[in-house]
């Protein structure tokens, strides 16, 4: 097939291969960048999740230690349901 291109336009086979190599290098670079960004977003999301979860759990511990177990249960359940719901939606 490349011989046909070379017959019609000398040097065209080399140009086609060079173009394919450049396209492949560009795609590899783009995919590497996309993977780096996705990894960074995942880690950032996990840290923010921790920053949200820690005060939620802490706000449930205080009433539990002061005899308000039902308030602690409501706060803990609301926090867990909210966080679990977010992670379930993220996976789907």
Descriptive overview:
- There is one protein chain.
- The chain is mostly helical.
- It contains 3 helices and no strands.
- It has helices at 2-8, 12-65, 69-91.
- Helix 2 runs antiparallel to helix 3 (69-91).
Could you tell me the strand content as a percent range? under 5%
| Oligomeric description of these chains | single chain
How far apart are the termini? 45 Å
Tally of contiguous helical segments: 3
SSE ordering: HHH
In round numbers, the mean pLDDT is: 84
**Helix/strand-derived class?**
mainly alpha
**What is Rg?**
28 Å
Any chance you could write out the topology, listing elements then pairs?
Elements lengths: L1 H7 L3 H54 L3 H23 L1
Task: Provide a concise account of the structure shown.
By secondary structure, the chain is mainly α.
Keywords for this entry:
mainly alpha, 92 residues, 3 helices, 0% strand
């Amino acid at each position: 097939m490349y011989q046909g291109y070379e017959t019609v336009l000398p040097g065209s086979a080399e140009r086609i291969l060079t173009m394919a190599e450049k396209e492949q290098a560009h795609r590899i670079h783009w995919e590497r960048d996309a993977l780096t960004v996705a990894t960074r977003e995942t880690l950032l999301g996990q840290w923010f999740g921790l920053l949200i979860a820690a005060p939620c759990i802490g706000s449930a511990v205080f009433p539990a230690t002061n005899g308000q177990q039902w308030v602690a249960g409501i706060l803990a359940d609301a926090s867990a349901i909210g966080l679990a719901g977010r992670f379930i939606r993220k996976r789907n």
